Amino acid sequence: MSKLPTTSEARTSARLPSTRERRPALAALAVILIVGGALLSGWIAMSSGDRADFLKVEGEVAQGQRLTAGDLGTVSLPEGFDGGVPAGDRDAVVGQYATARLLDGTVLSPSMVAESTGVGEGKAQFPIQTPATRSLTELRGGAPVGLYLSGGGGGADRGIAAEVVQVGEVDGGALSSSQEITVLVSVDASCGPRLANALADDSVYLATVGEGADLDDTCGG
Are 72 and 108 in contact (CB under 8 A)? Predict the structure, then answer.
């Protein structure tokens, strides 16, 4: 006849494993977590796709400025990024001209640079700083404007015919009476010296003009 276990024997058989007995199980669990974490990291890296280096702008580059090696940095993006210039094309980009104002950190695209300055033959470009008005901020490239000069040369000279190349942005997007914007204009190269002298004297005034405005297209003799 089998003997039933006593109360003390039942208590002993139901006791929890000792600390020494739990260590192998904890070690095995740690290994599983480490291996699992490594596999998860590898899966995330693979799912994110391959990456490649593209050119970006370092600092600010003005429109028409010739790019140097110092104007270009690199940024890591997905390899299939569309529209960026690969970092391997750096040597081909150095020496080209900015077709627009380039801001710091901008990822460079092929349309942002060109082999030439973009200034038409026989033309000169000047940035004109002027009080911001709604009519000026709404101007687009190619719009006709007049440049009126006062002082320095004496006399009431007629205005110089100019064409808008680019209009700067208004800070904050809201107009105020104290704000100014920069309007890049193109004029006949013969007007360059006259306009440069007036700009030095801060005596150039830009105005929107209508069709048939009486302006000097050239400034010769």
Answer: yes
